[in-house]
Specification:
511 residues; alpha+beta; Immunoglobulin-like; Purple Acid Phosphatase, chain A, domain 2; 2 domains; 9 helices; binds fe (ii) ion
């Protein structure tokens, strides 16, 4: 009795401690691939969408148990030892955002390197490095340009190589993930298998797929080294997506398209280190030297692609009216180079000689001729110069003089009749044509295409890698790097091609 009184007194004095809450162990489909040395920051760190005074920093904290909330501290410094911390704070992450962490760090200085890290669950993350954009003049800018990174087709060796380069930002033009089930689109002999193993549809499916991709060491290295400026293409949702459906979406099997799209978008914004807003298209000023214009050619305003080349003549929108007007405003920028982050190829490409049944790629701008014509007209009427399209989607490397009318007004010797250049980045891993037929036959197809399209100056449909785009006051330079292998982590690469265009000209000079 005396003991019980003492116990009640103690409770009164010290408060009644609640029972320790218990939570189920967090079961993650990809946990077998985690590197225990990185716990709980298995997915590394990343940054993106740099502006002169701010940049997004990102990580993911993976707890052992499914806790409702995790406190995360972050620090940004001007040195990698963190002796000069310029910004820091604490926030929390929750299962509602899949334990990802995203901070828009403001109040930074322009054109400056910063280092950042996170602390949570008694551990410190790897250190990331990022860079804000310039406001004044620069002697040069360099971007790594990538697209089409498919887990099952191989290791992201291009990303690993880019981590070692000195670039201002990495431009990802889409197909950052693919939606397919295992073995459906890939080379499983490499030993990389999709998780979940089926076609992704739900929010949890998309989260798991993003989580899987970010366990690639090359992707982690690139993310920690440079800010990312990403735009989605179709496979972030499903193949050949347009604003109200997709070729690879069957409502009877996969349910409502808009529910799937919203799940894909939520997971994308949770896992990709970019700024969240209701518009995915956005532009970035790099001072007097460049304006970067990232277009959304899928979810914003794209009508369903035409079924035939005849239908491609009809009024049909790729961007939607609002984005089109926004593009026109951005093209009036006083910056010297206007760089368009473009998903599908803008130039006219005549495929008749190699694909008689598909003379044009109707999922590209060749299926949206009226809107393409409006853009050409605006550029010519407003005498907009020094435009560079950088393009993904095709899994091939291209160098093209963008012509107003290839057959009627373009002169392949002088480049008269061209009004811009287009550099296509090959895939990080997704199949070229020589994954499906012999390399010799692909080389022959390339030759035939070049002969039938005199404005296309360079084409490689056999290699994987990335593009380095350097902008200088007097010229733009595209360097095409290809990886030796995708079958194991390996950074060996070769520089296959260099193309240059001088300021005020449209002629691609081959080096
Ligand atoms: Fe792709």
């Amino acid at each position: 009795m005396r003991n019980l009184s003492a116990f009640i007194l103690l409770l009164f004095v010290f408060g009644c401690s609640p029972e320790k809450e218990t939570y189920p162990v967090l079961k993650e489909a990809v946990s077998g691939l985690y590197d225990p040395a990185l716990a709980p920051f298995y997915h590394g760190v990343a940054s993106g969408d740099p502006l002169p005074d701010r940049v997004i920093i990102w990580t993911r904290v993976t707890p052992i148990d499914s806790v409702p909330r995790i406190a995360v501290a972050w620090e940004v410094a001007t040195d990698k030892e963190f002796s000069s911390i310029v910004k820091s704070d604490t926030l929390s992450t929750t299962p509602a955002r899949d334990y990802t962490v995203k901070v828009d760090v403001t109040g930074l200085a322009a054109d400056t390197y910063y280092f950042y890290r996170f602390k949570a669950l008694n551990a410190t993350s790897p250190t990331g490095r990022t860079k804000t954009t310039p406001t004044g003049s620069r002697d040069s800018l360099m971007f790594a340009v990538v697209s089409c990174s498919n887990w099952e087709f191989g290791y992201f060796n291009a990303y690993a190589s880019i981590a070692d380069k000195h670039v201002d930002a990495v431009l990802h033009l889409g197909d950052y993930i693919y939606e397919y089930g295992t073995g459906r689109y890939g080379d499983t002999t490499i030993g990389r298998f999709n998780l979940p193993p089926y076609e992704i549809v739900s929010l949890q499916d998309y989260r798991t797929r993003h989580s899987l991709y970010r366990l690639d060491a090359g992707l982690r290295a690139m993310s920690a080294a440079h800010p990312l400026i990403a735009i989605w293409d179709d496979h972030e949702v499903a193949n050949n997506t347009y604003k109200s459906g997709a070729q690879n979406h069957q409502p009877d099997k996969e349910g409502d398209f808009f529910a799937r799209r919203d799940a894909a978008k939520k997971a994308y914004y949770e896992w990709i280190p970019i700024r969240e807003s209701d518009k995915h298209y956005r532009s970035f000023s790099f001072g007097q030297l460049a304006q970067l214009i990232m277009l959304d050619e899928r979810l914003e305003g794209r009508d369903e692609p035409p079924a035939t080349p005849e239908e491609a003549q009809q009024q049909r929108s790729m961007l939607g009216e609002e984005q089109l007007q926004w593009l026109f405003e951005n093209l009036k920028s006083q910056a010297q180079w206007k760089v368009i982050g473009n998903q599908v190829i803008f130039s006219d490409v005549d495929l008749r000689a190699v694909y008689p049944k598909s003379p044009r790629n109707l999922d590209s701008w060749d299926g949206y001729l009226s809107e393409k014509g409006q853009i050409k007209k605006f550029i010519l009427e407003n005498k907009i110069k020094d435009m560079v399209f950088v393009t993904g989607d095709t899994h091939a490397a291209w160098g093209i003089e963008v012509a107003t009318d290839v057959a009627k007004t373009y002169n392949p010797k002088t480049s008269a009749g061209a009004f811009a250049v287009e550099f296509g980045a090959t895939s990080v891993t997704s199949a070229n044509d020589n994954e499906y037929r012999s390399t010799d036959s692909v080389k022959m197809m390339e030759k035939v295409l070049l002969t039938n399209n005199p404005h296309i100056k360079y084409l490689n449909d056999r290699d994987h890698g990335y593009l380095l785009l350097t902008l200088k006051p007097d010229k733009a330079i595209a360097k095409y790097y290809f990886m030796e292998t995708l079958r194991q982590p390996d950074k060996r690469e070769r520089l296959e091609k260099t193309l240059e265009v001088k300021r005020g000209e449209y002629k691609l000079n081959q080096k």
